[in-house]
Amino acid sequence: MSTRGPQWREHGRRDPAGRARPAAAAAIVALRYAWALPTTAVGLTVLAVSAAAAPVAGRVRTRVVDGVVEVYGGLVDVLLRRATLLPNGASAMTLGHVVLGRDAWALDLTRDHERIHVRQVERWGPLFLPAYGLASLLVAIRGGNAYLDNPFEREAYGVA
Ligand SMILES: [Zn+2]
Questions:
Q1: For residue 128, is it within any domain?
Q2: For residue 82, is it within any domain?
Q3: What is the reported pTM?
Q4: Domain around 32
Q5: Strands of the chain, DSSP E
């Protein structure tokens, strides 16, 4: 037993205030990213395809905000405008730790909402996309709005 360092290091995984120890906190973050990786891979694939399509569809841009890769412009803008099930397209879409946006302004405007979806993917992992789709289907069968009445969207709109 060492006498150096904060006393809480000798007493398990949490300090007296209930915060995770630094090493445990880093491990938890790594697990969240790993659990979300299958969904993140879909977002990274969209990024790769959009980058390849830049000569035709325009330049796609990226930035990292709070550990999330935000992608906008070019083919991503086209896809969000024309390839979603929403009548007027989508401003943004979360795919794991990748968030697609029409433009930088749309990403700024929707960040709080999309971060709720990032947290949902961290909870559901590879089950997120199937669960989201199944929830929309069940809501539609019951006569609700497949988007607005989806429990994942209700949670995100409830916060943002
Ligand atoms: Zn949403």
A1: no
A2: yes
A3: 0.84
A4: 23-123
A5: 61-65, 68-72, 92-95, 98-101
Residue 5 lies in a domain: no
12 C-alpha vs ligand 1 centroid, how far in Å? 38
Q: How far is the CA of 153 from the centre of ligand 1 (A)?
A: 5
Asked whether residue 11 is domain-assigned, the answer is no
Around ion ligand 1, which residues have CB less than 5 A away? Answer: 153, 156
Between the CA of 25 and the centroid of ligand 1 the distance, in Å, is 27
Q: Give me ligand 1 centre to Cα 99, in Å.
A: 11
**Number of domain units in the chain:** 1
Q: For 50-108, write each residue's pLDDT tens digit.
A: 999 999 999 999 999 999 999 999 999 999 999 888 888 999 999 999 999 999 999 99
CA 74 vs CA 22, 102, 106, 140: distances in Å: 40, 8, 14, 32
